[in-house]
UniProtKB/TrEMBL annotation:
Domain Metallo-beta-lactamase: 57-257
MF-aspect GO terms: hydrolase activity
Record-linked InterPro entries: Metallo-B-lactamas, NDM-1-like, RibonucZ/Hydroxyglut_hydro
Pfam families: Lactamase_B
EC number in record: 3.-.-.-
Superkingdom: Bacteria
Region feature (Disordered): 1-23
Xref: PANTHER family: METALLO-BETA-LACTAMASE DOMAIN-CONTAINING, METALLO-BETA-LACTAMASE DOMAIN-CONTAINING PROTEIN
Major enzyme class: hydrolase
Keyword Hydrolase on entry: yes
Keywords: Hydrolase
Compositional bias ranges of the Low complexity kind: 9-23
UniProt name for this protein: Putative metallo-hydrolase YflN
């Protein structure tokens, strides 16, 4: 597929909504209302080459590879935010990469609506590749329902007031199904780490050359780095968090929810993983 420059793209057409875990009626109504209003996106530099795109709920990341010959930058989008957010994402991508930059790929850490949302529209617009783990790919495509989380009592209102109020993601094509250990062609070699538990096909992306780790929702950083929420299999997610804490090097850890960790990243993540309980 040929990726269009970010400064010369034609609008893509959104597809029909995908099936998902049924939210409470009030949350469903809120999601329908929010779908009509494009969300705001804050662009936050993290480390050289990496920016965070912060939505009202959840966040995505952009990695920029500069061409050594002086050509246009190559961008990788790690998660794609909300459905209906493609125009604000286009503006963010232009600001990060410049009008000549190309969006090469979208890597989805898992199949939840606040991570898949705009992926299909952006892929249609730029002809870029969409990647997801093979276990979550059928959910992303709309072929299987989103697996329901094993909610603790205190997570029920969090779910109803949070993720269930985000617009549902439309069915989205997946061009490449990735596996644990696959190395992707950006950031000097980005390694896929399969971390089941939040969803069966959750992945993290580790850039060893830069010490950057993007964890998806297995780990969060809301009021401090801690075990994430809304997992399908909490015990598996704890083990996945501990696996992430053993990766090296770790200089910046980026989460699906909460501020990136850039100070003492390895030690802080390791301590949080040791404290995690299913």
């Amino acid at each position: 597929m040929t990726a269009e420059p970010l400064g010369h793209a034609a609008a893509g057409e959104p597809a029909s909504p995908a099936a998902s875990a049924p939210p409470a009626a009030s949350a469903s109504a809120a999601a329908s209302a929010s779908a009509a209003v494009p969300p705001t996106v804050d662009v936050v530099p993290v480390v050289p080459g990496l920016h965070m795109l912060r939505f009202p709920i959840g966040q995505a990341y952009v990695w920029r590879d500069d061409d050594r010959g002086g050509g246009p930058a190559s961008l990788t989008l790690l998660d794609a935010g909300w459905a209906g957010a493609e125009e604000v994402l286009v503006r963010a991508l232009r600001g990060i990469g410049g009008p000549g930059a190309r969006l090469r790929r979208i890597v989805l850490t898992h199949a939840h609506r606040d991570h898949v949302g705009a992926a299909g529209a952006l892929a249609a617009r730029y002809g870029c590749e969409v990647l997801a783990h093979r276990l979550d790919a059928p959910v992303v495509r709309g072929e299987e329902p989103v697996p329901e989380p094993d909610l603790t009592e205190w997570e029920v209102p969090l779910y109803e007031r949070g993720i269930a109020t985000v617009p549902e993601a439309p069915p989205t094509r997946v061009d490449r199904e990735v596996e644990d250990g696959d190395v992707l062609d950006f950031g000097g070699g980005a390694r896929v780490v399969h971390i089941p538990g939040h969803t069966p096909g959750s992945i993290a992306v580790h850039l060893p050359r830069h010490g950057v780790l993007v964890t998806g929702d297995t780990v969060a950083s809301v009021g401090g780095v801690a075990f994430g929420v809304l997992h399908v299999d909490r015990a598996a997610a704890v083990e996945s968090m501990r696996r992430l804490s053993r990766l090296e090097p770790l200089r910046a850890v980026c989460f699906g929810h909460g501020d990136p960790l850039t100070a003492d990243a390895a030690a802080v993540l390791r301590a949080a993983a040791e404290a995690a309980r299913a």
